[in-house]
Amino acid sequence: MDQQQFRKYGHELVDWLADYMQEVENYPVVSTAKPGEIKSRIPSSPPSAKEPMENILTDFRNLILPGMTHWQHPGWFAYFPANNSPPSVLAELLTAGLGAQCMIWQTSPAAAELEEAVMEWLQQMLALPEGMAGCIQDTASTATLCALLTAREKATGYESNRIGLQMPLTVYASEETHSSIEKGVKIAGFGSRALQPVATDDHFAMVPRELEKQIARDRENGLHPCCVVATIGTTSSTAIDPLEDIGRICRRHNIWLHVDAAFAGTAAILPEKRAILNGIEYADSFVFNPHKWMLTNFDCSAYFVRDPGALIQTFEIHPEYLKTGSDAEVKNYRDWGLQLGRRFRALKLWFVIRSYGVEGLRAMVREHLRLAQLFAAWLKDDARFETMAPVSLSLVCFRLNDGRPEPKLQELNAELLRRVNATGKVYVTHTALKGKYVLRMMVGQRTTAERHVQSAWEIIREKTQELLAGE
Fold first, then answer.
1. Which domains does the chain have, with CATH numbers?
2. pLDDT at 20
3. Which end is more exposed in the chain, N or C (fewer Cβ atoms within 10 Å of the end residue's Cβ)?
């Protein structure tokens, strides 16, 4: 492709994306493709000769687009959001065009220093403790793995990297913790049995006294408590673990405290929600994802640590070909995580924060919180429904309950979920809380307005009426 063609198709694709952002509401939220359907239409062998870009773009529109689930749809009420925004998309275009591999300062000084600057911005925006420093990881799963590995090294005097794990370490997290914690525990060499689930209260938050009991019991049995993972905004219900109490326990027992606030952390940019991070001064590491609720394209996960030296000592390695004359004066982020190669992720975050401003981002979060409360109020006014967890942020957990036995209620709500999502206008998911099947209404998509939440409620009521009438 020559420069003239690149310019032509580049303009065409930007125009298409601008139209897509405006018209995404007209697509079904979830693809209706059947398993194997897309692949069956793709040639089994690659083309031997080049193909015209017109043909490739036609296939994108006719083959790929119908197989996409539209995360940017205003009717997206599933999982957590994976937001983007026009400034972030433009920054991604620049990142791709620059094609920089930003593993060390020397390979792109601006990338390293911009990352340092935007992490300091985030530290101020969330009012994190002075001295907490960080870098951008790809996802919270990777950041959590970094935390587990650093906790492991600190607990073993930085010997397990050299000789392997020689002692039985334990990790603690609430029974509502994210699945990435178990995966990280396995990958980090603790073994899945090392993960100790801690009981939760009626609000699905970790019970500190149960944590302390388990720590004491494990020590008596010859185990070595190593790390506690506290969650601010669990996936199932956005429950908030009591960070201050957990932090004091960790400090008393000299245990690493990692705080997973992947989705909910963004809410702490609001002064009125900053209390969700009360106790963060006890944390050794902390992660939240701007790619969820801060309008920054996936992937962009902000990982902070209280002691950067511990992180670097866990991951640093110094082959001769990576040594430079500037190493003593700069931050080489290859030593701050798993990857050697690093994308220029800071650019899109910089574009977003500057384009919206802190107040603009706060306004978006406040609106999502308001819409969730509005939806919860509608549920409360309809005797057929019940909320199943506190609405502390922008997730509403609820179910239809007409008094039938619990197993039948699960079947009823599963069918309601199927019918609601089959409309193609909204996408809602489910979870289980204390063994009960629960529907999740997650408000957090950039383009979601009150009319979209109202439409979702009307669809839920309509399908409820049909279901209860036996239609």
1. 100-343 (3.40.640.10)
2. 96
3. C
